[in-house]
Amino acid sequence: MKLHKLLVIANLTKPTIEAALARLRRWTAEQQIEISVRAGIDTSPLREHDFDLVVTLGGDGTLLRGARLAAELDLPILGVNLGSLGFLTAVGIDELESAFERLARDDFSVETRMRLAAQILSAPQLQCTALNEISLVHPELGRRTEIELVLGEQAPMAYPGDGILIATPTGSTAYALSAGGPILDPSLESLIVVPLSPHRLGTRPLVLPSASVLRAVAKRPAQLLADGELIATLAPGDAVQIQKAERPTRLVRFASDFWRAVRQLLS
Length: 267
Prior knowledge:
Structural class: alpha+beta
Radius of gyration: 19 Å
Strand content: 35-45%
CATH topology of the largest domain: Tumour Suppressor Smad4
């Protein structure tokens, strides 16, 4: 991979972030590669677009935010883990320089992961994408909401309780797993519907084809979140359309053993 300019998304709250940035700046300066550093919490529009790669310094949360920008730019993303759990990141901080050397030798692979897109039908400008999940929950912790889910021409399905998640196979090992959803291989393309503390015992998770287009209607107040970030507050009657996003996330990988990582996660 020819690298001329990197977009670096950094979690500035990590204790080791300054040391990580110093190492990255030193290596890129030696290789005559430009970098543009952006805080992970920064949501302002990008002023530049001529990047070759997105790099995240942090944990999985930082990678999720960086993955949104990478998808918009149609670029691959490399996650460097500075935290304790880096399920989505490719390397640890100790491997930073060697990872870039392998990139230069084309000694890597890219995994394509589907994303979800959500749009509020009454306000088309309110839209988002997510790598892990789209969630609809009550605005107040512990309060009950109810989401009505419509798939095509089928009868609506009611989900009274804490809310619902619509997750990707990548997200099946995140919030959806904690809520009782199944684990799917990330190479699959599917939508997973996971109810959150449902008030009906017969309500169970569903796995749907990736071509499915869902309409989620808030019957009570709810919040729309993408990968845990608040997008909008929904009033009763507001509807959200959820489907596979046009652009995927492309994760840089140097080795991939998904099920070994799952075993470590569950142990």
